[in-house]
Amino acid sequence: THAPVVDVLKGQYAEGETVTVKGWVRTRRDSKAGLSFIALHDGSCFDPIQVVALSSLDNYADVQRLTAGCSLAVTGTVKASQGKGQALELEAQSIDIVGWVENPDTYPMAAKRHSIEYLREYAHLRPRTNVIGAVTRVRNCLSQAIHRFFHERGYYWISTPILTASDTEGAGEMFRVSTLDMMNLPRDDKGQVDYAEDFFGKETYLTVSGQLNVETYANAMSKVYTFGPTFRAENSNTSRHLAEFWMIEPEVAFADLSDIAQLSEDMLKYVCKAVLEERADDMAFFEQRINKDVVRRLQALVESDFVRMDYTDAINILQASGKQFEFPVEWGVDLSSEHERYLAEEHVGAPIIMQNYPKDIKAFYMRLNDDNKTVAAMDVLAPGIGEIIGGSQREERLDVFDARLEEMGLSQEDYAWYRDLRRYGTVPHAGFGLGFERLVAYVTGMQNVRDVIPFPRTPGNASF
Ligand code: 4AD
Ligand code: MG
Question: What is the predicted ipTM?
């Protein structure tokens, strides 16, 4: 057996003890004293371990030909390090070369600084870099913390379907799913195929949100959440949109807008605290190399209260700001990312919970407020990225819901099962969706969501 590098660096083996580690060469350099230093990483922590190879090794000639990317099994003695940067190192007793890099000149991850755009072209090799390694550990830490947060509070994790016939958000941004056979079915003179003949007997899509499904479980199990992949055919090439992204959607029965706003604040604080405690090594790297404010910003988030603001007040603030925005501001418009960022970054300087949006810019299921103009919606806007959470109290009153469906030209038939929740023991309930990649980008300071998901799907890009 072999030890993870993190265990050796954390001192789980005494000086003088023999241990085996396995991983990939990040760098190697020869010293004048006739020995070789190898930085070996295995993903278990930010730092590689320094392996000292003495010229007395049988295969020292081979060791001197090692380059970045070669894979090794090293058995060695744990020693206090003379060099700066690490307390412990491994003096090799043997170095087993598991896999050579066939031609170092063609190895795309050669040890130098690559641009983040360059790394995107090598989604299969980029996990070997410092930056993607750090993102991967923070992403994992966040997802574990999210599950822990809900578990500790008595929520059940519900698996909602990926394949669905409903357009939850009603935004028409769905990917259609069909069998290959279906693509060859005869078409009518308008070029339309008859979906009754297809696998599911109706037109089917990849889900844009698990919300409608998870609402059914909230109306029985009380506190639930989904955590799964969602898909949107948004043809927007921005740094915060993906065609495939992960969403966390809690849904709570007997809860209103302020309950769910509080839940979003508690959850974000809990998971950010977990990252500060568990991933200090990676966060120190992000602070140094990606964004110098990133750690301070997380600490502030954990310690301060989120600001709650009404949409109507936000419009007034934007109008009074004297700023020239690309998209003009007036009551009724959707907030664009420049508006969101102005509010979160310049006006407040911290996350904002924005509430009570005009009903015309929000989805059909949101609960109508008494003013008949706004709905009980909430978005969490974070500095540096804008909207990371969107949620609402749901319309639980059947008559109001039906009126809204009609107003939006949606059919009762299509929402029959959803209406049943309002017909049989309806209760006030509320929930939200957290975009996982936007959270990871916010926490790490990474500029683009494409760099915080292993294999980003964007317009024109589904390789790997
Ligand atoms: O605001 P959205 O559209 O809300 C919903 O889907 C609700 N059904 C959620 C609910 O109440 N259960 O999306 C929620 C979040 C956004 O705030 C954003 O963080 C993220 O999902 N998101 C995206 N992330 C990456 N790429 C995209 N194309 C995204 N679209 C939304
Ligand atoms: Mg939204």
Answer: 0.99
